[in-house]
Inverse folding.
């Protein structure tokens, strides 16, 4: 056995361990609830908890924690030791069924969008058995981690996993129904697979520590562009440096121990930007694993005196980081509904699934946009960078022609059906070849999956996956309704008639051209496609009746929960902006202005010295004046930003405040930044109080 296969999953309570530690009966029941996605059968909880504890303690664990995904992003954990008193009053280590199935963190400090008032602020977390428990390790200490959902006592959603699991259920029911209509009896459970490609930056820890903005906001607020950025295109897929290989190898090792199938590692477009992508897995697990990857990366990097930056736009002027979420749908038989096939019925299923997604994106493009909106991603979507905020789908030439052919069918005959079938069957796996890809599209069909490119690098991909699931579910609902009333002589004929109509009415969301071009922005506007410029604009969809209805119909969120999400998103946005503005003001006043004071003194003193010596001093005097001007501009810029920040606080409500900070606040920061960056380019290097872009972005 190779080392990889030997260590793979050694820190997880995986199927092999379960089989070894549990009775056959219990093992079968547990596997059953894992496959069905149902809550754990209480009758076996005691045995499972005991086995898990024995396994964890044997591996050196002293504590356990329920690990969950609060709406604020990231993950949360509260550790409890296994120790408790025995009946005789001695210390023993135990982990009961109750502790496994359910635990009660004090939830008062998690964002809830006003769902709970603080006095009833209890929430509870419950094990999600479809995601295996695992151990985390720092130094000698190990902790048993139980992946969980997080709910309030009133049953309201407080996390991101619960709505995701609910969306899976809705999609499952809708998709299975369609399979039955198509005569498929084999499919018992719908499987969504996801592979999130994670982009990130790495900088030297020593340099990182000189930057208050990176440390506090995760991104730089100031920084003049380096002479050499990404213009030479020499970083993408370039040779990975020794130092980075050592980090990546350590990282992969840690990931393998946790059973996370890291597959690809490479340099990205910007200097010091990289990507890691795993093999795809069932969506729920892929999402949990992505969250773990982000955590583990940060820790492993520190061991190498490096800092991983997951922000969507840490440096102006070079590419930001995203997380391409690859998404496909299939079932327990291993079928992938987005995979062309030799069977005509499967190909009809392929086209219907395409149609379902078109319908979803056509109707709820704005909601999909909102699922990836936050202050960080605003610097990518709809700003000067990939991908655009208009949600359109790229199919490639071959598939576009095929869809057009379906759309233009006159009468459905055996011959047209055969021709369409041949078309799908021969669908080349062109998209696998990246040369054929349109990188300006937010949603691209890539051979046997959709790649959703608008997710931010720091995001929990669960939010986007939830909406993708719901969009597909919505499309299936419509298609099923229409199929039921179609008058074809068989299901294939009915399906083609339905598809013809669906492709026609969703034409506007298919776009093959350049998504960055101003023509597309104009055309999209004419077509009525939403194009929210930033988070406050994107959030408005959560007020729309159709969106609330979709959430209710799919049982993903109640109206109350949608409203709570609206509030949480805006609150988070406002807080992020406020922290950025305060940090910028602080840096300007306590670091930049003092540096300029020194520079002014130096220049003025030099001018005076020259004058005293009888030499020409006017150039140095001009320098001193220029620095004095910048001093004034920066001082005023910081004051203006502070005023704007205060003014925001007197807005009538959250939405108004978010809009105001996103417009006027952002403008005030940009103005300040322009002066600071100019000062950076003129001030003596040894006086500048923080690492510059060219240092931060120098190869490691
Ligand atoms: P790239 O887009 O960089 O060319 P790959 O083709 O290697 O990348 O795939 C990128 C990601 O897509 C990987 O995480 C991979 O596991 C995932 N992926 C591949 N096939 C599927 C699928 N059928 N469903 C979901 N994800 C998939
Ligand atoms: Mg990709």
């Amino acid at each position: 056995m190779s080392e990889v296969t030997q260590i793979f999953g050694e820190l997880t309570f995986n199927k092999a361990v379960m089989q070894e530690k549990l009775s056959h009966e219990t093992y079968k029941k547990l596997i059953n609830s894992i496959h069905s996605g149902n809550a754990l059968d209480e009758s076996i909880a005691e045995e499972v908890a005991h086995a898990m504890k024995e396994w964890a303690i044997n591996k050196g664990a002293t504590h356990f924690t329920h690990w969950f995904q609060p709406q604020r992003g990231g993950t949360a954990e509260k550790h409890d030791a296994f120790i408790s008193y025995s009946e005789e009053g001695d210390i023993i280590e135990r982990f009961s069924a109750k502790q496994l199935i359910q635990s009660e963190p004090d939830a008062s400090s998690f964002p809830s969008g006003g769902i709970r008032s603080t006095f009833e602020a209890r929430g509870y977390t419950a094990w999600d058995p479809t995601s295996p428990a695992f151990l985390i390790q720092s130094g000698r200490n190990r902790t048993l981690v139980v992946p969980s959902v997080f709910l309030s006592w009133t049953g309201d959603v407080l996390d991101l996993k619960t709505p995701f699991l609910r969306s899976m259920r809705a999609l499952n029911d809708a998709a299975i129904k369609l399979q039955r209509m198509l005569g498929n009896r084999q499919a018992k459970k719908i499987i969504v697979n996801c592979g999130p490609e994670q982009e990130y930056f790495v900088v030297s820890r020593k340099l990182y520590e000189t930057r208050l903005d990176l440390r506090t906001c995760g991104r730089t607020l100031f920084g003049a562009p380096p002479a050499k950025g990404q213009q030479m295109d020499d970083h993408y897929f370039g040779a990975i440096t020794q130092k980075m290989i050592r980090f990546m190898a350590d990282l992969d090792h840690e990931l393998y121990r946790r059973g996370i199938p890291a597959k690809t590692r490479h340099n990205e477009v910007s200097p010091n930007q990289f990507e890691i992508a795993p093999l795809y897995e069932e969506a729920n697990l892929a999402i949990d694993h992505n969250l773990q990857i982000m955590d583990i990366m940060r820790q492993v990097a520190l061991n190498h005196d490096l800092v991983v930056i997951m922000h969507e736009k840490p440096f102006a002027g070079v590419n930001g980081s995203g997380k391409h979420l690859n998404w496909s749908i299939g079932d327990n038989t291993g079928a992938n509904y987005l995979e062309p096939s030799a069977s005509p019925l499967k190909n009809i299923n392929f086209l219907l699934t395409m149609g379902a997604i078109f319908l979803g994106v056509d109707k709820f493009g704005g909601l999909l946009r909102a699922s990836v909106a936050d202050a960080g991603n605003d610097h990518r979507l709809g700003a000067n960078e990939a991908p655009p905020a208009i949600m359109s789908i790229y199919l490639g030439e071959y598939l576009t022609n095929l869809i057009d052919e379906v759309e233009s069918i006159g009468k459905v005959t055996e011959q047209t059906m055969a021709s369409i079938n041949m078309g799908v069957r021969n669908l080349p796996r062109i998209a696998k070849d990246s040369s054929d890809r349109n990188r300006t599209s937010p949603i691209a069909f890539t051979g046997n999956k959709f790649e959703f490119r608008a997710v931010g690098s720091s995001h929990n991909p669960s939010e986007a996956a939830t909406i993708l699931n719901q969009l597909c579910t919505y499309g299936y609902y419509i298609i099923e309704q229409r199929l039921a009333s179609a008058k074809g002589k068989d299901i294939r004929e009915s399906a083609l008639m339905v598809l013809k109509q669906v492709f026609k009415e969703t034409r506007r969301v298919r776009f093959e051209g350049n998504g960055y071009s101003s023509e597309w922005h104009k055309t999209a506007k004419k077509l009525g496609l939403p194009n929210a410029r930033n988070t406050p604009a994107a959030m408005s969809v959560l007020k729309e009746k159709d969106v609330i209805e979709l959430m209710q119909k799919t049982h993903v969120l109640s109206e109350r929960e949608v409203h709570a999400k609206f509030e949480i998103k805006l609150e988070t946005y406002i807080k992020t902006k406020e922290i950025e503005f305060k940090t910028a003001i602080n840096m300007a006043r306590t670091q930049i202005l003092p540096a300029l004071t020194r520079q002014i003194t130096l220049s003025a003193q030099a001018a005076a010295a020259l004058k005293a010596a009888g030499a020409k001093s006017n150039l140095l005097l001009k320098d001193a004046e220029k620095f004095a001007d910048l001093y004034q501009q920066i001082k005023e810029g910081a004051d203006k930003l502070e005023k704007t920040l205060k003014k925001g606080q007197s807005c009538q409500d959250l939405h108004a405040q978010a809009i105001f900070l996103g417009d006027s606040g952002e403008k005030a920061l940009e103005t300040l930044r322009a002066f600071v960056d100019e000062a950076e380019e003129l001030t003596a290097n040894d006086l500048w109080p923080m690492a510059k872009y060219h240092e931060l972005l120098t190869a490691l």
